[in-house]
Design a protein that fits this description.
The relative contact order is 0.15. It contains twelve helices and 22 strands. Helix content is 29%, strand content 26%. Bound molecules: pyridoxal-5'-phosphate.
């Protein structure tokens, strides 16, 4: 029984998550661990289910963008190490301490405040990964002097423990490797300076999916596996290189809510941008831009019906969208695939991204709380979560 009433849902294939972790496991040196990046609710796939599957498949730890995302994982019973990759206000260290979540830091003042908060509250020390900015221009220390200052502050903070050092690549998914190599050299120089200063280095990590594919020898203690975990390539170029074979985990499905066959021309949706001709069948689907199904797909995107492509006609509305079917083909409740495979056809997230002028990362991230996630393992449904109602299966179906 499904804990949702509207027949529009995301399916996540947990076997694909497992395969992708195993693929990276065999692509990397044995000594390199895998930190599964499940920020943004597991890139729209669902952080808890994906995180658990990644850990069960050989990942060693999880990473999120913000502490709130780590809270969800701990509440779901996940005990593995979790690193927050983004900024955490110093006063929130109390939560990190209670939940044993590691934080990213790059600033001495932050460390002083965080240490004070923890001392005053009499809490356990928090693990801190120092972020170095080697060419991303986002978070992190940029010079060796800054790095040394931050390390000294950290060492003088009894309630903070230095557990990691990392950097993030800006262009590792591109054919021109100049920037990535320069970033790696800068990172190596930082590590060397620390060694020369007699510092014992903690966990070292720098590779995202693209760098892990292109430069597995830069794996150090761990990679941070994001997009590849979900079976997507970081760029069309990385897909073309085909160094690793990844399996996409996500499909987006719905069922026809209404069908009409034109006996005379009628216009479809806001703006009347499409006119159905006599004999054409138009099916209405219960999904729209308020679900994260982009309005940019209006009169451009396609869906799969009976294993063949059918065009989206008219503008995508807030909650509904129309497709054109072969005359007489469609019935209410018939299944339509919006992203993913049906028969031999596939609408990949890469295709959708290209159509709407973005990257594949954004397409699943856009699918929001209105869409339930249904999890499959060995072809069997193993869980459902509906973020809108915060309900897990089982629940009386609403039909
Ligand atoms: C700091 C950091 N590390 C790792 C990742 C994972 O990157 P990817 O999804 O390209 O593997 C991200 C994602 O944006 C990130 O911000």
């Amino acid at each position: 029984m499904k804990p949702f009433c509207r027949d529009t849902w995301v399916e996540v294939d947990l076997d694909a998550i497992r395969t992708n972790v195993e693929t990276f496991r065999s692509h990397l040196p044995k000594s390199t661990g895998i930190m599964a990046v499940v920020k943004a609710d597991g890139y729209g796939h669902g952080a808890v289910h994906v995180g658990k599957e990644a850990l069960a498949s050989g990942a060693n730890s999880l990473a999120v963008a913000m502490l709130d995302e780590a809270i969800i994982l701990r509440e779901a019973g996940i005990e593995a190490p979790i690193l927050v990759l983004g900024y955490t206000p110093a006063e929130s260290v109390e939560i990190a301490s209670r939940l044993r979540v590691e934080l990213t830091a790059y600033n001495s003042d932050w460390m002083i405040h965080a240490n004070e908060f923890l001392q005053q509250a009499g809490l356990e020390a928090v693990g801190v990964h120092i972020k170095t900015d080697t060419g991303m221009g986002r978070l992190g220390v940029r010079t060796s002097e800054e790095l040394m200052r931050v390390v000294s502050t950290l060492e003088a903070s009894p309630k903070l423990t230095w557990t990691g050092i990392f950097t993030h690549f800006a262009c590792a998914d591109e054919p021109d490797t100049t920037h990535a190599r320069r970033q790696h050299e800068t990172f190596q120089a930082f590590l060397q300076d620390l060694r020369h200063a007699g510092k014992k280095l903690p966990m070292i990590h720098c590779c995202n999916t693209a760098a892990a594919i292109a430069f597995p020898e830069w794996g150090y203690d761990s990679i941070r596996l994001g997009i590849g975990l979900y079976g997507l390539y970081p760029s069309p170029y990385m897909k073309e290189r085909a160094d690793v074979s990844l399996v996409p985990a996500l499909s987006l499905k719905t069922r026809i809510a209404h069908v009409k066959t034109a006996t005379e021309p009628f216009t479809v949706s806001y703006g009347a941008t499409y006119c159905a001709q006599p004999g054409e069948q138009v099916a209405t689907l219960p999904i729209g831009y308020a679900d994260g199904f982009s309005r940019l797909l209006s009169n451009r995107g396609e869906a799969l019906y009976n294993g063949t492509r059918v065009p989206i006609v008219g503008r995508v509305c807030m909650d509904q969208v129309m497709v054109r079917l072969e005359p007489g083909a469609g019935q209410v409740n018939d299944e339509i695939v919006l992203y993913g495979k049906q028969g031999d056809e596939e609408i990949s997230l890469d295709e959708v991204a290209a159509l709407i002028g973005t990257i594949n990362y954004e397409v699943p991230c856009m699918l929001n709380y209105r869409i339930p996630r249904v999890y499959f393992q060995s072809g069997e449904e193993v869980g459902v979560f509906h973020p809108l109602t915060m309900k897990h299966a089982p629940l009386e179906r609403c039909k």
